[in-house]
Amino acid sequence: MAMATAGDLSQPFAWPDAGVTRIPYRLYDDPEIYALEQRRIFRGPVWNYLCLDIEIPEPGDFKTTTVGEVPVIVARDLDGQVHAMVNRCSHKGALVCLRERGNARQLTCVYHSWTFDLQGRLKGIAFRNGTNGQGGMPAGFDPDQHRLEPLRVDTFCGLIFGTFAEEMPAIEAYLGQAMAQFVRRNLDRPLKLLGSHSQVIHNNWKLYAENVRDSYHATLLHTFYTTFKINRLDMDGGIVLADDGWHHISYAKRATFEEDPEYRQSKVHAVQYDSKLAGPRLLDAWEEFDDGITHSIQTVFPNLAIQFTLNSLAVRFFAPRGVEQTELFWFYLGCRDDDDEQTRMRVMQGNLTGAAGLVSLEDGCINEFVQRGVRGSGDQLGLAEMGGREVASSEGSRATEAAIRGFWDGYRRIMGFA
Amino acid sequence: MNDAEAEAPADPVPRTRIEDFLVDYAHAIDDGDLRAWPDFFTEDGVYQIISRENFEAGLPMGILSCEGRGMMADRVSALEQANIFEAHTYCHILGPPRISEESPELYGARTNFNVVRTMQDGGSEMFAVGRYLDIIVVADGRPLLRERRVVLESRRVDILLVYPL
After folding, report:
1. Which of A57, A66, B48, B61 is packed most tightly, with the most Cβ within 10 A?
2. Interchain contact, B160 vs A364, CB within 8 Å
3. Close Cβ partners of A258 (under 8 Å, ≥ 6 residues apart)
4. pLDDT band at B143 (very low <50, low <70, confident <90, very high)
5. pLDDT for res A251
6. Which residues of B touch A198 (CB under 8 A)?
7. What is the domain count for chain B?
8. For residues A328 and A274, is the Cβ–Cβ distance under 8 A?
9. Which domain holds residue B136?
10. Torsion, CA A389, CA A210, CA A408, CA A9, rounded to 10
11. How far apart are CA A69 and CA A264, in angstroms?
């Protein structure tokens, strides 16, 4: 892995001797580090989440997104193959797709009508032969050398990923066995989109990457469950890190699951959560799996998370929008064969998370509080020693910052920050 | 709401009452009288904030959904007791409502709105723009929302959404 050199940063950067238990605040607000991340991470050896397969179901469907700051088009060609390419005309650099989503047989830049097929190959140049025998492109101009810059694409359980790196293993190998198995548990079935929105949070993208891995803060900052005395019947779960530490799963299980056979029998009915809620149907739920896991969140480096809270299944994608701004997208999913009541339960449980989430709306502002707090902090360091100093899974306790250390361990490697 | 009703002369025209009711709703939130918010709805009233994009696509999921006054009261209790966020206030600017009469007891209304949010640092910014799509029942001369769908022009929320719109 390349080391950060003087040429990359005008101020040298070295990780503190205490390793990933210390996090330099500079990482949250240094524009040069942010720029280096664009190259080392988002254009580097990672799989970037692009979109859901169900967002572009038909031939000709396309969607625009970003990989880091780079505008990207994801398109399904007329044969059904998915392609991704930079949304930047190979002529003047203008956006080729202006709409967020649509359906087209080809992609045409509005500036000079250069036309590309759904793989991004240059197929047409207006006035290529000039007019009246004058002008036009030189005779040796080769359209094959001027396609839209492609990304390699891989799809796993309905999630479409893209990478700029040539030598990447398939997405399943990138996830590793434990991570891939859990993605399969949650998403490997016919899905449908129930709704989506986004949220602008005023903080560096890595603060959200930490926050979503921070199982320690959950019951301390988010007090909806305890305020309403909602008995989740959960035992503390655990943290599973991927082999290289930078992806993770955090889960909680229903404590009474094994010993109480009535729970198994009641699986077809809504689970009753004892609470002080005036509108308790908010928490109507059903047992969707046999493993007893009721709450889980999984991350995929660099900027994807998948949540399963009761029956609320959502893909969260947090896109950097500058050093101190991030757009957090929420895609709420159901199963195609859900009945009306199941859909209703997923919709109502959607109140727990998102921009207006009863349980988690604090995450919209808490990372900004860090961003504002670290201004003028010079070389000062944040601390991540809860649960030890190791980068290791933590079965049995979520009072740990293990997954945060895992994130920074991977981040150091890919950024070349020795 | 009660003040306005008390001061208004006996009005045989429900339209005027509905217009006052729509304004009272906005003022109650702007004045921080959130405890009154569920009382603008029928007992089983529905409230949903949804993006225009999702609404037009017929998707069921909003950014916030309540079924019945109980869930609305829980929202208010949560923001008062559980949720943590930076202090701010709303100012609703309503456009003229288009009210349609289905029957003497049942009305539809569409009202455009802006909500300006003021943070404690003094900044006032446009927070939400959209339309209220309402189904209003009038019982004993008193309007109540059976359904209020808040259709936001944007799918993007700045920071978070904690007070109802």
Report:
1. B61
2. yes
3. A292
4. very high
5. 93
6. 155-157
7. 1
8. no
9. 2-152
10. -140
11. 47
User: How close does chain B come to A358, measured CA to CA in Å?
Assistant: 7
Question: Which residue, chain included where needed, has tokens 């003022």?
Answer: B27
Q: How many CB atoms lie within 10 A of CB A274?
A: 12
B7 has pLDDT over 80: no
Contact B69 A278 (CB under 8 A): yes
The enclosing H or E element of B54 equals helix B52-56
> Using the beta-carbon criterion (under 8 Å), do B84 and A365 form an inter-chain contact?
yes
The per-type count for chain A, helices as H runs and strands as E runs, is 11, 19
Q: Please, what is the average pLDDT of chain B?
A: 93
Report how far Cα A204 is from the mean position of its chain's Cα atoms: 14
What is the pLDDT, as a whole number, of residue A1?
44
Per cent of chain B over pLDDT 70 is 92
Q: How confident is the model over A157-168, as a mean pLDDT?
A: 96
User: What is the ipTM for the molecules in this complex?
Assistant: 0.93
Structure-token match 């100093």, residue found:
A389
Report the distance separating Cα A94 and Cα A66, nearest Å.
Answer: 15
- Which residue of B67, B76, B81, B157 to mutate against A (max A Cβ within 10 Å)? B157
> What is the reported pLDDT for A334?
98
Q: DSSP string covering A309-377, please? A: ETTEEEEEEEEE-STT-EEEEEEEEEETT--HHHHHHHHHHGGGSSTT-TTTTTHHHHHHHHHHHTTT-
CB A189 within 8 A of CB A377: no
A316 near A61, Cβ under 8 Å?
no
How far is the C-alpha of A125 from the C-alpha of A85, rounded, in Å?
Answer: 19
- Which of A198, A228, A346 is the closest to B156 by Cβ? A198
Nearest CA in chain B to A346: B61
More confident residue, A370 or A133: A370
Q: The domain spanning residue B10 has which CATH number?
A: 3.10.450.50
Residue B144 lies in a domain: yes
Please indicate if any CB of chain B lies within 8 Å of the CB of A94: no
Between A396 and B114, the more confident residue is B114
Cβ B78–A228 below 8 Å, yes or no? Answer: yes
Catalogue all structural domains in chain A, each as residue range(s) with its CATH number. Answer: 48-156 (2.102.10.10), 177-415 (3.90.380.10)
Tell me the residues of B at the A interface, defined by beta carbons under 8 Å apart.
49-51, 53-54, 59-75, 77-78, 81-86, 155-162
| Most confident option among A132-136, A251-255, B1-5 | A132-136
Positive or negative: CA dihedral A409, A174, A364, B117: positive
pLDDT of residue A265: 53
Mean pLDDT in residue range B34-56: 98
**Chain B residue whose CA is closest to A193:** B59
CA-closest candidate to residue A161, choices A71, A74, A31, A254: A74
